[in-house]
Structure to design on (958 residues):
């Protein structure tokens, strides 16, 4: 090919603004959204507190005290009081975040990978593959989420690990639907056809043209599931299907402290406040991410 | 792109022969067996170095035809021969080999570029798929950007949403040219552009064709654009070819009443010659149940009994100069009352 | 229309079948011998043999499943291990109690949530919108079992105006919603149960309404000189199908998701039955309750689907 050809008309077309990739512009939008930044920082603080729990907790969360049971806020340095076995509530809340966050986040991550993959395969594959995957997912979708989580983890005999497996199974079908819808939409756009027209194979097209465009919706959905995950996980613990005592966990704490509401109601309600703050923060962070990522391009 | 494509058949060998291409789509939720006859037995040649314009109303099957030529949609029946080699045949060439030599530019310039990719990567994708290293592919992308009149450093790193419609269409052309095809199918490639930008892109296409010995199949519903760029014109109606011939002949002496009507429905620049009545009214009939005989008869002012009974034949379509039309009035033996006078 | 009805029902049948397969497999999810899951650990050899025969564990799985399905189809879910009563009796009684709660929670949640979302969506960006959407976020983030405990603390422990738990002196069988002495036991559970659906419905209504508000036809209506009230009526009508879909899901949530709330209030509904079954490892009850709840959920979704296509002609064609 001869490689010089000057067409001056196009050279003088007005220049577009400085180019910024998709994720760049999402980040930029997020920076100017104070609500999202605030709740993002709260989420960060909660996660850091869980990671560095042993350094932050003022007391040993497992140290019991017969005389110091169910004490009110501020009793002898116990800022948030003590529980029915005299253990420091604040320390247990900080430590409890570890299990609660893990049980809420891990299933979302598993569902994102498994459900996302199934969804992309279902969306990009042929009619038969799609039917097989999506109809199976529909069956699991036919259960209310709490019910399915309780049923599976209950049948498996409870425990943190089974709880996480159950929650993964609850989230996978929903994730799969989101990924399938996104894939099917992108699949029909001209640029995928153009890529096929250049002779690219299915895997190459998936890797370079589909994944990048499906990741956005999948990520948005995953971020909104984290809050649900934390709520369901502590719900399972509340029913006794999560970690076993004496491990500190918000749902489990709530369930044991519940017996003592007549003695010290304020202290008994505290684990729920921790769950609520965490879940609200994750929700609002996810809302912010969603609207920042909703860029028409 | 390991081998240099040579002009195997010589200049007389048509670059692409389409024989009796057929594609029927199943109607979703319709009666069992109901099909849309999107492309219903289309045959034509594309000669080396020419621009073959394809015109017709929306829904006549132009875009389906374009996709059939690249096997982006699998044809139900029919044959494709590229420079003497049957596509998909044991002794011919594979679909992939065809796609190296025939490229396509799509109408919607925004959905035809990956929104999450800088445009230079979209251009480099083709060469990369065909075995170039990423660095080589990037270099090719730069070269091609220059060829379509865009500064590589300024425009290459941009994302599609940061470009104007005309710039996006230049990128689409660049992407098609990046793997050095011999033929480019332009599916309404300039239809969505402003008139001024359209003219720029059309001139670019002409210049590129000249420089790289390209052959174009130019699909458009805009007759003046087709007249400007084409050497020959193919007129489609309801999934079938109704007229085919050199551009001058088609525009000055149309043979098919549908072509006549299409030409007459162009708005005139001369206020004195403005038409009061549109020469063609109503929508085309449904391609699910096309009329018997001649498909145009329901809207044709010359329709007679014979038009409902037998389907008119297009005649010989493999001659570069012939001007042919699928109309009973063209056939002295058809029994149509106006048939003789046309000769 | 009849065509659509048949198609949707035909579509629901394989789903219902799949649901029953899942419920059947629950017994086999547990590690080890399924017999261990079904039997109490101190079961005698006689009981083991009896149960083994009753469940037909010696036969291949598909046969076992078909036999189980055959019994389920005629309403025989087996016998509760804990109470020795037929599971079907236990489940229907519990479902009745759950439905009593839902009967009140559903209208409260739907009307409150829809009004909140509609008001917020009609005035996007206003302080009212922010207040309502803020409240709705708390609603969707609420651990409702905790909220139930807080309600008990406030109204039963501190103010002592409402009872904390149970169904009252007359028990499940004598309960009447028309007698205040009984009905007061429902107040806290119903409020608690409504909170999360209120948040979810408010959020989706707001999203649907503000989306419709942005469509071109609203400008046309305004240009035609319609009053704001008439425009809002048009907008709400267009947002309704989308909201309806969410409401259908929420109805299922109220039926199936009441497990935590019923546990907090020891309300003898299906959820409470389920949590008791889990504690007692009472697999027949577990299976039967889940199957019934899931089937109700499938049926609700079917009804919502049909209602949606009645309202929205665009859906009918697909």
């Amino acid at each position: 090919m001869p490689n010089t050809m000057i067409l001056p008309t196009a050279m003088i077309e007005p220049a577009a603004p400085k180019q910024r990739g998709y994720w760049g512009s999402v980040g930029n939008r997020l920076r100017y959204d104070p609500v999202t930044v605030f709740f993002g920082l709260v989420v960060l603080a909660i996660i850091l507190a869980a990671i560095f729990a042993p350094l932050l907790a003022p007391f040993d969360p497992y140290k019991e005290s017969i005389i110091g049971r169910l004490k009110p806020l501020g009793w002898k340095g116990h800022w948030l009081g003590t529980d029915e076995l005299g253990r420091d509530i604040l320390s247990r809340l900080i430590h409890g975040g570890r299990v609660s966050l893990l049980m809420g986040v891990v299933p979302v991550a598993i569902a994102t990978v498994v459900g996302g993959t199934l969804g992309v395969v279902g969306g990009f594959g042929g009619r038969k593959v799609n039917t097989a995957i999506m109809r199976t997912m529909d069956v699991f979708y036919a259960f209310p989420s709490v019910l399915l989580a309780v049923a599976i983890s209950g049948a498996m005999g409870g425990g943190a690990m089974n709880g996480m497996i159950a929650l993964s199974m609850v989230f996978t079908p929903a994730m799969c639907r989101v990924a399938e819808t996104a894939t099917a939409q992108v699949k029909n756009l001209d640029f995928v056809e153009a890529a096929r027209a250049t002779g690219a194979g299915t895997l190459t097209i998936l890797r370079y043209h589909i994944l990048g465009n499906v990741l956005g919706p999948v990520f948005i959905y995953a971020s909104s599931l984290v809050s649900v995950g934390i709520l369901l996980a502590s719900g399972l613990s509340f029913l006794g299907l999560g970690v076993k005592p004496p491990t500190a966990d918000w749902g489990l704490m709530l369930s044991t402290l519940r017996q003592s509401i007549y003695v010290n109601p304020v202290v008994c309600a505290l684990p729920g406040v921790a769950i609520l703050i965490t879940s609200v923060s994750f929700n609002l962070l996810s809302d912010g991410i969603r609207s920042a990522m909703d860029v028409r391009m | 792109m390991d081998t240099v494509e040579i002009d195997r058949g010589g200049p007389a060998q048509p670059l692409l022969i389409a024989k009796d291409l057929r594609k029927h789509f199943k109607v979703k939720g319709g009666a069992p067996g109901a099909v849309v006859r999107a492309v219903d037995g289309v045959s034509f040649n594309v000669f080396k170095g020419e621009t073959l314009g394809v015109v017709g109303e929306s829904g006549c099957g132009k875009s389906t035809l374009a996709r059939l030529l690249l096997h982006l949609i699998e044809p139900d029946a029919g044959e494709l021969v590229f420079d003497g080699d049957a596509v998909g045949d044991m002794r011919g060439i594979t679909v992939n080999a065809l796609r190296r030599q025939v490229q396509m530019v799509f109408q919607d310039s925004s959905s035809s570029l990956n929104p999450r990719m800088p445009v230079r990567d979209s251009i480099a994708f083709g060469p990369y798929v065909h075995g170039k290293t990423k660095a080589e592919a990037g270099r090719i992308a730069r070269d091609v950007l220059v060829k379509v009149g865009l500064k590589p450093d300024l425009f290459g790193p941009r994302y599609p949403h940061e470009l104007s419609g005309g710039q996006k269409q230049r990128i689409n052309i660049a992407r098609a040219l990046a793997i050095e095809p011999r033929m480019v199918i332009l599916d309404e490639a300039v239809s969505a552009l402003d008139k001024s930008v359209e003219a720029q892109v059309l001139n670019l296409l002409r210049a590129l064709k000249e420089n790289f010995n390209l052959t174009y199949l130019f699909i458009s519903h805009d007759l003046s654009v087709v007249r400007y760029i084409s050497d020959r014109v193919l007129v489609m109606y309801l999934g079938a070819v109704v007229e085919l011939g050199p551009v001058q002949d088609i525009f000055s002496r149309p043979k098919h009443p549908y072509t006549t009507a299409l030409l007459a429905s162009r708005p005139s620049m001369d206020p004195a010659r403005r038409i009061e009545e549109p020469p063609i009214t109503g929508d085309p009939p449904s391609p699910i149940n096309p009329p018997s005989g001649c498909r145009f008869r329901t809207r044709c002012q010359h329709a007679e009994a014979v038009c409902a009974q037998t389907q008119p034949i297009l005649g010989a379509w493999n001659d570069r100069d012939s001007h042919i039309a699928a109309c009973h009035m063209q056939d002295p033996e058809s029994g149509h009352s106006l048939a003789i006078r046309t000769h | 229309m009849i065509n659509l009805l048949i198609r949707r029902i035909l579509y629901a049948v394989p789903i219902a079948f799949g649901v029953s397969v899942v419920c059947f497999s629950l017994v086999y999810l547990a590690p080890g011998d399924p017999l261990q899951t079904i039997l109490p650990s101190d079961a005698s050899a006689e009981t083991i043999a009896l149960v083994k025969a009753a469940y037909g564990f010696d036969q291949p799985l598909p046969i076992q499943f078909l036999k189980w399905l055959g019994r389920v189809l005629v309403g025989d879910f087996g016998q509760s291990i804990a109470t020795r009563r037929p599971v079907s009796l236990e489940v229907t009684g519990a479902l009745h109690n759950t439905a009593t709660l839902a009967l009140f929670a559903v209208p409260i949640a739907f009307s409150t949530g829809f009004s909140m979302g509609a008001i917020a969506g009609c005035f996007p960006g206003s302080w009212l919108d922010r207040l309502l959407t803020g409240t709705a976020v708390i609603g969707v983030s609420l651990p409702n079992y905790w909220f139930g405990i807080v309600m008990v603390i406030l109204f039963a422990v501190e103010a002592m105006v409402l009872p904390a738990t149970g169904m009252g002196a007359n028990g499940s069988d004598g309960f009447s919603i028309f007698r205040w002495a009984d009905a007061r036991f429902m107040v806290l559970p119903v409020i608690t149960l409504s909170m999360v659906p209120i948040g979810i419905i408010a959020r989706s209504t707001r999203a649907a309404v503000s989306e419709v508000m942005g469509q071109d036809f609203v400008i046309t209506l305004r240009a035609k000189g319609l009053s704001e009230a008439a425009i809002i009526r048009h907008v709400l009508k267009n947002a309704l199908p989308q909201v309806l879909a969410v409401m259908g899901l929420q109805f299922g949530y109220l039926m199936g998701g009441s497990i935590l709330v019923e546990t907090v209030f020891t309300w003898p509904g299906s959820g409470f039955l389920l949590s008791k079954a889990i504690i007692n490892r009472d697999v027949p009850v577990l299976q039967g309750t889940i199957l019934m709840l899931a089937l109700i959920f499938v049926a609700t979704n079917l009804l919502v689907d049909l209602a949606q296509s009645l309202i929205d002609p665009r859906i009918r064609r697909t």
In short: The domain at 32-293 of chain A is CATH 1.10.3720.10 (MetI-like fold).
